From TrEMBL, chain A:
Tagged with keyword Isomerase: no
Gene Ontology CC terms: plasma membrane
Membrane topology qualifier: Multi-pass membrane protein
TM regions (residue ranges): 27-47, 59-77, 84-101, 107-129, 136-154, 174-195, 224-248, 254-273, 280-299, 305-323
GO molecular function, one term: transmembrane transporter activity
PANTHER family in the cross-refs: ABC TRANSPORTER PERMEASE PROTEIN YPHD-RELATED-RELATED (PTHR32196), RIBOSE IMPORT PERMEASE PROTEIN RBSC (PTHR32196:SF72)
The entry's keywords: Cell membrane, Membrane, Transmembrane, Transmembrane helix
Compartment list: Cell membrane
UniProt-recorded name of the protein: Monosaccharide ABC transporter membrane protein, CUT2 family (TC 3.A.1.2.-)
Automatic annotation (TrEMBL), chain B:
CDD domains: ABC_Carb_Monos_I (cd03216)
Protein name in UniProt: Simple sugar transport system ATP-binding protein
Domain of life where this protein originates: Bacteria
Signal sequence extent: none
UniProt GO molecular function: ATP binding; ATP hydrolysis activity
Keywords for this protein: ATP-binding, Nucleotide-binding, Sugar transport, Transport
Keyword RNA-binding carried by entry: no
InterPro entries, sorted: AAA+_ATPase, ABC_carbohydrate_import_ATPase, ABC_transporter-like_ATP-bd, ABC_transporter-like_CS, P-loop_NTPase
Limits of the ABC transporter domain: 13-248
PROSITE patterns in the cross-refs: ABC_TRANSPORTER_1, ABC_TRANSPORTER_2
PANTHER family reported for this sequence: CARBOHYDRATE TRANSPORT ATP-BINDING PROTEIN MG119-RELATED, SUGAR ABC TRANSPORTER ATP-BINDING PROTEIN
RNA-binding is among the record's keywords: no
């Protein structure tokens, strides 16, 4: 076979190349992991409470909604789109779950909340993919309208959840960890598989890299764009369910600024806002990092207003590192 | 003409009365093009004559305003890139159309990735193996099919684009400026490739500014001028000067 003769023997240069390749491809993940490790050590040393099982198990539960939506958001951002409506969808589904569960079946409430999230995502996706509107504008409109809808159906009040079927979704424990943590683990694993090992994942990268190329290769780009925004809608619905179940209450105000936290997590994880490059694992680590910062600062008893300030600074530092170091390490040509 | 010996009544490609308007500009004003089996047609014309647009229509990437496209007698007008590919039409675009953030094998297999039926898992191993094999067959030297296209030179990218078009047994191969970024040796390889595929019965349409290349491989020149068919001639009937004169509309 001609391969044998034509392929050069793997030499030292090739191996070095492979190692460089690994570093450059996973640079985003490696850098955010380093940041997380530093923060982890810092908070462990500076506070007594941080490095305790109880605290870590709690952090793992708190970050779950962000992790779940960040996984879906990674698909969206990798195509070069954005979804600003996830926080509002979270609020609406949390409120709807509580209201329906109170007046009827808990199972129906759960299904309805998820379908609601999926449906809003589908509308976002259809307007973006087939209506040829920018996802930024479409989901900005949804951010406003969906939050309004949530306030409308609740009159601004929160509704308690007492269902024995729903509460374990937020507070149940299995093998030491809370249900939300397990849900997040499953979502990350599934997201990683789909992103890296299926045609859909490949096309998500291709849409963000060169959508026209993918179209010419015979793939319907609009279906990919529709699917990713539907995914974030569904994920936000799931996050709404988790949040409401954990707090034992559905509030139309939950999830305010949640979209920015999710986008921050995704960008921290090395996903390019311009599309074409994304990492599911990076997004998950990014979300955990944000959770660790807010938890650690609270334990340090610094003023709670320092949490967003610190998160903002970490974001800028991470982006600068990515932008400046990344181009140098990978040496990409255009 | 090389295809003359196996004459079959329907031509492989038949484009009739193709029109296309972009805003105020009518790029194509009723163009006809026929390509026989195994025939190499050199499509020439000045910049803006409509060559690339005409070929994008054949590849399904642009929909004509009016006119008819048939491949082996079957209508294919405006049915999209997927249908065109399924009908055996492959095109190397002038702007390459590769995904920078996808690796070499991923670009070769874009749109027709191999995956396991049950788990939907991409068969990365097989795609990389086949990609390496295909590149070697075409004498394209790329040491690692896991490299991202973004890290490669213009010539390498062009080679990948050509490899993608010829690998999947096309019936019609459209090459829009395939040699623009290539060194002399690689140009010669590309021309040899065109001879090889056309001798296997593949129809080729070649657009290039290197007119001397056309004299080496083309069976027939079709000259477009400002969106209409201007001249048609064989290499025996003309020379470089005659071809240039025809391109200028005289």
């Amino acid at each position: 076979m001609s391969t044998r003769t034509a392929a050069p023997a793997p030499g030292r240069a090739d191996r070095r190349g492979a190692r460089q390749d690994f570093v450059s491809r996973n640079f985003g993940v490696l850098s955010i992991s380093a940041v997380l490790a530093v923060l982890f050590v810092f908070f462990s040393v500076q506070t007594d409470a941080f490095l305790t099982t109880n605290n870590l198990v709690n952090v793992a539960r708190q970050v779950a909604p962000t992790v779940v939506v960040a996984v879906a958001m990674t698909f969206v951002i990798t195509t070069g789109a954005i979804d600003l409506s996830v926080g509002s969808i979270l609020g609406l589904t949390a409120a709807a779950l509580a209201i329906v569960a109170e007046s009827g079946s808990a199972v129906v409430a759960l299904v309805l909340a998820l379908v609601l999230g999926l449906g809003i995502g589908l509308v976002n996706g259809a307007l973006t993919a087939f209506g040829k509107l920018q996802s930024f504008i479409v989901t900005l409109a949804a951010l406003t309208a969906v939050r309004g809808l949530a306030l409308l159906i609740t009159d601004g009040y929160s509704t308690p959840i007492t269902s024995d079927f729903l509460l374990p979704i937020g507070n149940g424990r299995l093998a030491g960890l809370y249900t939300p943590t397990w849900i997040a683990v499953v979502v990350v694993a599934a997201g990683w598989y789909v992103f890296n090992h299926t045609r859909f994942g490949r096309y998500v990268v291709a849409v963000g890299s060169n959508a026209e190329s993918l179209r010419r290769a015979g793939v319907d780009v609009r279906r990919i764009q529709l699917a990713v925004l539907t995914l974030t809608g569904l994920a936000a619905g799931l996050a709404g369910v988790i949040t409401a179940a954990r707090l034992a209450s559905g509030s139309s105000n939950s999830g305010t600024l949640f979209e920015l936290e999710v986008i921050t997590a995704v960008v921290l994880g090395g996903t390019a806002l311009m599309g074409g490059k994304g990492s599911i694992v990076g997004s998950a680590i990014g979300a955990v990092t944000l959770g660790v910062i807010s938890n650690g600062l609270v334990l340090l008893r610094v003023d709670v207003y320092w949490v967003p300030i610190t998160q903002g600074i970490i974001l800028i530092v991470a982006i600068l590192l990515n932008a400046k170091l990344f181009s140098r390490i990978t040496g990409q040509r255009g | 003409m090389t295809a003359g010996t196996r004459d079959i009544s329907t031509p492989r490609v038949e484009m009739r009365g193709i029109r296309k308007r972009f805003g105020a500009l009518e790029v194509l004003r009723g163009v006809d093009l026929t390509v026989g089996r195994g025939e190499v047609v050199g499509l020439v014309g000045d910049n803006g004559a409509g060559k690339s647009t005409l070929m994008k229509m054949l590849a399904g990437a642009v929909v004509p305003d009016s006119g008819e496209i048939r491949v082996d007698g079957t209508a294919l007008t405006g049915s999209g890139p997927r249908a065109a590919r399924a009908a055996g039409i492959e095109m190397v675009y002038q702007d390459l159309a590769l995904c920078n953030d996808v690796d070499v094998a991923g670009n070769l297999f874009l749109g027709r990735e191999i995956h396991r039926p049950l788990t939907r898992r991409l068969d990365h191993k097989r795609m990389h193996e086949e990609a390496a094999k295909d590149l070697a067959t075409l004498h394209i030297r790329i040491s690692d099919t896991r490299q991202l296209v973004a890290t490669m030179s213009g010539g390498q990218r062009q080679a990948i684009a050509i490899a993608r078009a010829v690998t999947f047994e096309p019936k019609v191969l459209v090459l829009d400026e395939p040699t623009a970024a290539l060194a002399a040796r690689e140009v010669e390889m590309t021309l040899q490739l065109i001879r090889d595929v056309s001798s296997r019965g593949v129809s080729v349409v070649l657009i290039t500014h290197r007119l001397q290349d056309l004299f080496e491989v083309a069976d027939r020149f079709v000259v477009l001028y400002e969106g209409v068919n201007h001249r048609q001639m064989t290499p025996a009937e003309t020379d470089l000067g005659g071809l240039v004169t025809a391109m200028m509309g005289r």
